[in-house]
């Protein structure tokens, strides 16, 4: 009986010894798992904050709550392989999210097309209107119509070609910048890393985070797209950009310039002054509507302030068009008197 009791006591002592030896190891393993999860969560929130920062969305800044978080990144780049892969994959998704946002924006409205339409309409509403107003002093609606149509055709072709050449120049500039960026990435990895650091400098990120992002982005296959968008500010041009630009500007110019000619089609050959008065009234309304819409498209359509800004923009457009028409009429009459 005594022998059995002694064996049982020794067994308990061995169990206590092993439990005391393994308990710190178990606690350290558990704490390391919690630490890795915490750092991984911090890294995820950090990369999400960066994505929101680039896309204009607001989210809590993970760097303002230091008392609630551990250090975001380890000092050594090779201390946590899974953490490094997680940062690299999430940093790569920044470009994927950017491409999705770019596609959705293009599917809704293309700001370049609207800009081209405004350029064409603004020129078409002023130049042909001034020309037809000046030619109305000749006393013949046929002269006004034929000269106006000739100017519209030539002006639309000229404006369209100008837009086409401008878009082609932008496309060539983009290709040259893309080639230089690819050369930089392939020949100078250190300079590429320095360039990525410069991209993140204005956001006042922790140095360790900036170093880690620069290291992983410099080795990412999407580094060229990253530099083109965030460092060069040069988004990729659509293949049909030049043709779309030329067609939009030309059509906008022809449409805007054809409006003052409409009254001359509705009157007789000897009623040119009557058509001129209607042309003035019609174009005053068109210029005001265009100026109002152009201003409110940028500032907004509702609210007293936006309405006032739109009204001011409409009167400014009327003043510009009216001044051009008065100057054209005065010059034509001056040349007519000199010729007589």
From TrEMBL:
GO biological process terms held by the UniProt record: intracellular manganese ion homeostasis
Predominant location: membrane
Region of interest (Disordered), residue spans: 1-43, 58-91
Keyword Transmembrane helix: yes
Membrane topology: Multi-pass membrane protein
Compartments where located: Endomembrane system
GO terms assigned for molecular function: manganese ion transmembrane transporter activity
Cross-referenced CDD domains: CCC1
Protein's name according to its UniProt entry: Vacuolar iron transporter Ccc1
A GO cellular component annotation in the UniProt record: endomembrane system
Biased composition (Low complexity): 27-43
Similarity comment text for this entry: Belongs to the CCC1 family.
Membrane-spanning segments: 113-131, 143-167, 242-266, 272-293, 314-335
Keywords noted in UniProt: Membrane, Transmembrane, Transmembrane helix
Keyword DNA-binding set for record: no
Organism, scientific name: Lecanosticta acicola
Bias type Polar residues, positions: 7-26, 76-91
């Amino acid at each position: 009986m005594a022998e059995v009791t002694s064996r049982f006591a020794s067994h308990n002592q061995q169990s206590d010894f092993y439990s005391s030896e393994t308990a710190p190891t178990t606690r350290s393993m558990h704490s390391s798992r919690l630490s890795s999860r915490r750092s991984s969560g911090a890294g995820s929130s950090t990369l999400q904050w960066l994505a929101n920062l680039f896309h204009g969305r607001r989210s809590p800044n993970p760097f303002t709550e230091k008392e609630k978080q551990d250090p975001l990144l380890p000092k050594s780049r090779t201390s946590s392989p899974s953490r490094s892969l997680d940062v690299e994959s999430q940093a790569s998704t920044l470009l994927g999210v950017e491409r999705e946002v770019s596609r959705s924006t293009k599917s809704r409205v293309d700001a370049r097309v609207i800009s081209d339409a405004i350029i064409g309409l603004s020129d078409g509403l002023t130049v042909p209107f001034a020309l037809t107003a000046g030619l109305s002093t000749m006393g013949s609606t046929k002269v006004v119509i034929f000269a106006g149509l000739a100017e519209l055709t030539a002006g639309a072709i000229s404006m369209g070609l100008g837009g086409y050449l401008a878009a082609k120049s932008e496309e060539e500039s983009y290709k040259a910048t893309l080639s230089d960026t690819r050369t930089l990435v392939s020949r100078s990895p250190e300079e590429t890393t320095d360039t990525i650091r410069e991209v993140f400098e204005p956001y006042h990120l922790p140095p360790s985070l900036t170093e880690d992002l620069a290291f992983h982005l410099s080795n990412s296959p999407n580094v060229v797209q990253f530099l083109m968008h965030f460092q060069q500010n040069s988004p990729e041009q659509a293949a049909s950009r030049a043709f779309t630009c030329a067609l939009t500007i030309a059509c906008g110019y022809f449409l805007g310039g054809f409006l003052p000619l409409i009254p001359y089609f509705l009157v007789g050959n000897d009623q040119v002054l009557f058509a001129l008065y209607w042309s003035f009234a019609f174009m005053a309304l068109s210029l005001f509507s265009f100026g109002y819409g152009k201003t409110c498209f940028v500032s907004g359509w509702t609210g007293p302030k936006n309405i006032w800004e739109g009204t001011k923009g409409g009167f400014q457009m009327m003043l510009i068009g009216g001044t051009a028409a008065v100057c054209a009429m005065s010059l034509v009459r001056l040349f007519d008197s000199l010729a007589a």
